[in-house]
Structures are given as structure tokens and as C-alpha cells.
């Protein structure tokens, strides 16, 4: 019989994709008892009862079928009102808003609807782990631009400009940022806007942490002069409304772009989960107080945690938003992976090594402070002991 | 009294956890320990913070189960002093945990804690009902406390999240 080498069934793109760098730590951390976890990228609050109750009511009433592809019109109207009220950006709920399965799907749609094979997409790093791989899956080429801690991880306009080639299609920005917590202020957004305009780029603005901005009002990139027409705004309910498991997000973009995203969404997903959409309507109508309450609580924990990190010798800039502290561990002479692994094994504190977030993340660790004050105090105690021994 | 934002924030934190170490509290509101102490002193002296209390689930302590009753009391208000005088006569009893003036079907809502049902019954029949202005009482015994002053009893507060998410 003829000997045949078994062919791979996998797409070459997927085969080449690196698995998430966090997997190994997850397996290690979840096999251990008594771990204080600062590794979670999600709220420690349970979704507000009134939101959960709205979902239950929708089920009782039997709303169990598909919704419109773009999402319930009622929800899109609430989203439009919310964006106008909170971020001063106006979108037409019928033509410019799409309800998605988490912000994750919205990012995927934005890229797949706009990237041609070989197009370059600038990713400001350290960044959320999904951007690069999603660019690749859309057939594009991610071009990382590295920010650093000495600049509070703010992207400088000249850095973007240097990364631009004639293949550059888009720029992904995320403010407040995961993992650094950095918030871009008005002037910084305006400086980016000037380059974006000059080079005719599209901006994918991931604003999933907008509600969790602690030191001043949030400014949406779409609200910057002349940017609305070239911005795909991504947001959702996961972080601000403590609804990660509901898998509900949304995107707002000029009608032509949104139509293209909707086309893919229609074929791939049909529509976002119906019960989650009913819950989201309640979240937008009556959830503001709970969001404020959670935000206040994160803010206090941030103040405590970041000051404590600095006191025990892990120098950390004050993050303006999200719920991550991103302290430097350079002084210890360890790589971020070594540091995270040693800390986990010796003191049972789980943090995420900074290098999984791409260029510029090496030398840092990501600590989520979305944990109870007791857990945070315990983590600081253990980390202090750990550092004293190094 | 007009309080600063930081003062209000300190009260909010202490209301949830009065035993938080002052160093931690100070960091949470971004003040020095000295400044925080000064604010605490002021809040205590002006009686904005009235008392630091402990919420105990006595059912868990053998021999200390106790009973709580809520009593609806109808009274005749007195000229000049209205309900205040009779309310004061009631709240002076140590068994009485709280007294509220209510709108609606009755006038005063009185919460009593006693060691046993008969102790509470005795208090109601001998002390409360016999007061001059008291017209009638209706006693409701609390069978189980699910939530008290914003705190849910016996709430599983385990973290449902998995250890790591990127
Ligand atoms: C920056 C950023 N964007 C998007 C997401 C995904 O959000 P969703 O749960 O809405 O898909 C996350 C989650 O960690 C994130 O950190």
C-alpha cells in the first residue's frame, strides 16, 4: 500500500496562530488551593438584580426566538440614547448601531468588514490579547507599536506616524486600556486624530471600559472633531455593567461600515442572545446607579492597591481607568513570566505576566484589583513578603 | 452639616466595614493617616458617626438564639407633645431596639428583642400595653432573618470567577 503522510486539516492561518500566553498560568493557578487571584479580567460584582430579573421576566413572557439581526430596535434606541447622553456622540439606531455577542465579536466584525488581505493594522501595545490574532484571522497584518511605562503607556503621535506604511488601513486604540489602565485625554486623542486624518486611516476604538474612568469625564474617540466618520466605536455591557457572562456588546459606526459588519453578523451569528438583549435594555434604562456604585468601589480599591504596590517597591503608575494595575517588576531582575510563576508557586498570588500583552509588556505584571478589599490586602501582604525574600 | 466628598466617602466605607485598618482606609481615599484620623475624630465628635456596631447572627451561637418581634402600636397623641412623649417612654426600655413613627394603620413601630417568646409577650402585656396612651398593640414575631440593614445573612460570598482571564 502507498504510504501517505497525513495532511493537516487545519487552516495555515490558524495553525500559525499562537495560543493565548495565559493558558499555562491558568492551568497552574487553578490546580492550586488558596490562591489569591489578581488574574481575572472581569468584575467581581454579580450583575445587578434588576437586570437579572428583567431577563427572567423576558423568559417568563416567552421571548425565546431570534431578534432582528442588528438586535432589538428597542435596545438599539436605548444604546443610541446612552451614547448621546454619556459620551455626546449621535448615532442612528436603525442604521448605525449593531448589537453583538460581546465587544469581542464587534472587534472581529470591524476587522473582517474592513481589512483586505495584506492590509496593516496598527495595534497599540501592551494591548488586549485578542487584537493581533483577530487582525491575522481577518487576513491583515498586525503592526505593534510599543508604548512604555515612563510615558504612562500613552501612545505618542510620532510613534504612530513612524509605523504607517502605504498598506496601513486602521489603528486600534483602547482607552481605558487593558492591561495598563491608561486613559487617553482630550489632547492626546486630538493628536492621534490629526495623524489619522492626514493618513486617511480608520480607527477601531475599543471603549469597553469607558464606564470605568475614575479621574474625569470619559471622551469617546468618535466625539473628537471629524473622527466620527472614520471611527468604529466598540463597547458593551461586560465590564461597566458586570455582565461578562451574558455575551452582549455593541458597535456604532457610519452606516456604510455598519452595513458591511451586519452582513457578516447576519451570516455568522444571526443575532445576539435574546434574553441578554432584554436584560441590556433594563441595564441602560435603570442601571446607572449600580454602575456608579461599582465604579466608586473600584476607584477606592485602585487608590489602595496602587499606593500599596508603590510602597512595597513595585513602582506603578496611577491607572485612570479599567480595573488593572500594571506595576514594573524590572528592579527584581526577573522576567515577567519568571516573576509571575515564582509569585504563584511561593505565595499563591496569581497575576498575569506582562509579556502576554505584547511589546512593551515585558518587565511588568498585570494585577486586577476587581477583588474584595480583604483579598487585595492579603495579596499585598504576600507580595511584600515575596519581594523581601528576592 | 455640609461634608466634603472625602468625608462622605470615609463614612460610606466605614458603614460597610467599621474595622478596616486606618492605613488601608487612608489609602482608599488618598489621604494621609493623620488627615484621616482628624476626619474620623470630627465625624465622631459631631455625631455624624453615632456608633460602630457589629451585626451578629445569634442563631449560630448556642443558647443565644433569642427572638425579635415587631409590634404595631396605636396610641393617643398628647396635646403639645404629640407622639414624642409616648415614644420616649417606650424607647427607654432596654429591650426596645428601635422605635419609628409611622404613617398608615398604626402610629409607632416598635422592635423588641428578648431571650424567649414568653419574655417578649410579658414585656408587651405588662409594660407596653399598660402605658396610658397606648390604645392597642399587634405583635409580629420574626421567624427568620434573611436580610437586615442591607446585609444578607448566610450569603455564600464565594467568588464564581475562574482564576485567570486574559
Ligand atoms: C479591551 C477589551 N476589549 C474587549 C473585551 C471583551 O469584552 P466582551 O466580554 O464584551 O467580549 C475585553 C475583555 O477582557 C477587553 O479587556
From TrEMBL, chain A:
Ranges in coiled-coil conformation: none
Broadest EC class assigned to this enzyme: transferase
Regions that span the bilayer: none
One family name in Pfam for this protein: Aminotran_1_2
InterPro entries: Aminotransferase_I/II_large, AspAT/PAT-like, NHTrfase_class1_PyrdxlP-BS, PyrdxlP-dep_Trfase, PyrdxlP-dep_Trfase_major, PyrdxlP-dep_Trfase_small
Highest taxon above the source species: Bacteria
One Gene Ontology molecular-function label: transaminase activity
Keywords: Aminotransferase, Pyridoxal phosphate, Transferase
Cofactor(s) essential for the protein: pyridoxal 5'-phosphate
E.C. numbers: 2.6.1.-
Biological process annotations from GO: amino acid metabolic process
Keyword Transferase: yes
Domain Aminotransferase class I/classII large: 34-382
Membership in a protein family: Belongs to the class-I pyridoxal-phosphate-dependent aminotransferase family.
Protein name: Aminotransferase
TrEMBL record, chain B:
Iron recorded as keyword: no
Keyword DNA-binding annotated: yes
Family matches, as PROSITE patterns: HTH_ASNC_2 (PS50956)
Record's keyword terms, sorted: DNA-binding, Transcription, Transcription regulation
Gene Ontology terms for molecular function: sequence-specific DNA binding
Chain ranges of the HTH asnC-type domain: 3-65
Protein name according to UniProt: AsnC family transcriptional regulator
Organism of derivation: Parageobacillus thermoglucosidasius (Geobacillus thermoglucosidasius)
Pfam families recorded: AsnC_trans_reg (PF01037), HTH_24 (PF13412)
Amino acid at each position: 500500500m502507498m504510504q501517505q503522510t497525513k495532511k493537516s486539516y487545519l487552516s495555515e492561518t490558524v495553525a500559525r496562530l499562537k495560543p493565548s500566553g495565559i493558558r499555562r498560568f491558568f492551568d497552574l493557578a487553578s490546580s492550586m488551593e488558596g490562591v489569591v487571584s489578581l488574574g481575572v479580567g472581569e468584575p467581581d460584582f454579580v450583575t445587578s438584580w434588576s437586570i437579572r430579573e428583567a431577563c427572567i421576566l423576558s423568559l417568563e413572557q416567552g421571548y425565546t426566538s431570534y431578534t432582528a439581526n442588528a438586535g432589538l430596535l428597542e435596545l438599539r434606541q436605548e444604546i443610541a440614547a446612552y451614547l448621546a447622553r454619556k459620551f455626546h456622540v449621535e448615532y442612528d439606531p436603525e442604521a448605525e448601531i449593531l448589537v453583538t455577542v460581546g465587544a469581542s465579536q464587534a472587534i472581529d466584525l470591524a476587522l473582517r468588514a474592513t481589512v483586505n488581505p495584506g492590509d496593516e493594522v496598527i495595534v497599540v501595545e501592551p494591548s488586549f490579547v485578542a487584537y493581533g490574532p483577530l487582525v491575522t484571522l481577518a487576513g491583515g497584518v498586525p503592526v505593534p507599536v510599543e508604548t512604555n511605562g515612563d510615558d504612562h503607556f500613552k501612545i505618542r503621535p510620532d510613534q504612530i506616524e513612524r509605523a504607517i506604511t502605504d498598506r496601513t488601513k486602521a489603528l486600534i486604540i483602547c482607552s481605558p486600556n487593558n492591561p495598563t489602565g491608561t486613559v487617553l485625554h482630550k489632547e492626546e486623542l486630538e493628536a492621534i486624530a490629526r495623524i489619522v486624518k492626514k493618513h486617511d486611516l480608520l480607527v477601531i476604538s475599543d471603549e469597553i471600559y469607558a464606564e470605568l474612568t475614575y479621574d474625569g469625564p470619559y471622551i469617546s474617540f468618535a466625539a473628537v472633531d471629524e473622527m466620527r466618520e472614520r471611527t468604529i466605536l466598540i463597547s458593551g455591557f461586560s465590564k461597566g455593567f458586570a455582565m461578562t457572562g451574558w455575551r452582549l456588546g455593541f458597535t456604532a459606526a457610519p452606516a456604510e461600515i455598519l452595513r458591511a459588519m451586519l452582513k457578516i453578523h447576519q451570516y455568522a451569528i444571526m443575532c445576539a442572545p435574546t434574553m441578554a438583549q432584554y436584560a441590556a435594555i433594563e441595564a441602560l434604562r435603570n442601571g446607572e446607579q449600580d454602575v456608579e456604585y461599582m465604579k466608586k468601589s473600584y476607584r477606592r480599591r485602585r487608590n489602595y492597591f496602587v499606593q500599596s504596590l508603590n510602597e512595597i517597591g513595585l513602582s506603578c503608575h496611577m491607572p485612570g481607568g479599567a480595573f488593572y494595575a500594571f506595576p514594573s517588576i524590572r528592579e527584581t531582575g526577573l522576567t515577567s513570566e519568571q516573576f509571575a510563576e515564582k509569585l504563584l508557586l511561593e505565595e499563591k498570588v496569581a497575576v498575569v505576566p506582562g509579556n502576554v500583552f505584547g511589546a512593551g509588556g515585558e518587565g511588568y505584571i498585570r494585577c486586577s484589583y476587581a477583588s474584595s478589599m480583604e483579598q487585595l490586602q492579603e495579596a499585598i501582604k504576600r507580595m511584600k513578603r515575596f519581594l523581601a525574600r528576592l | 452639616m455640609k461634608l466634603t466628598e472625602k468625608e462622605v466617602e470615609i463614612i460610606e466605607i466605614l458603614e460597610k466595614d467599621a474595622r478596616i485598618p486606618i492605613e488601608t482606609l487612608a489609602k482608599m481615599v488618598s489621604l494621609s493617616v493623620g488627615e484621616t484620623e482628624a476626619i474620623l475624630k470630627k465625624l465622631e465628635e459631631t455625631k455624624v458617626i453615632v456608633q460602630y456596631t457589629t451585626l451578629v447572627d445569634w442563631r449560630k451561637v448556642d443558647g443565644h438564639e433569642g427572638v425579635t418581634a415587631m409590634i404595631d402600636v396605636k396610641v393617643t397623641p398628647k396635646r403639645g407633645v404629640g407622639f414624642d412623649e409616648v415614644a420616649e417612654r417606650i424607647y427607654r426600655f432596654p429591650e426596645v431596639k428601635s422605635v419609628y413613627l409611622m404613617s398608615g394603620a398604626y402610629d409607632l413601630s416598635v422592635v423588641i428583642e428578648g431571650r424567649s417568646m414568653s419574655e417578649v409577650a410579658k414585656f408587651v402585656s405588662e409594660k407596653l400595653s399598660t402605658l396610658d396612651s397606648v390604645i392597642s398593640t399587634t405583635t409580629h414575631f420574626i421567624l427568620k432573618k434573611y436580610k437586615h440593614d442591607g446585609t444578607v445573612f448566610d450569603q455564600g460570598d464565594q467568588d464564581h470567577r475562574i482564576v485567570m482571564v486574559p
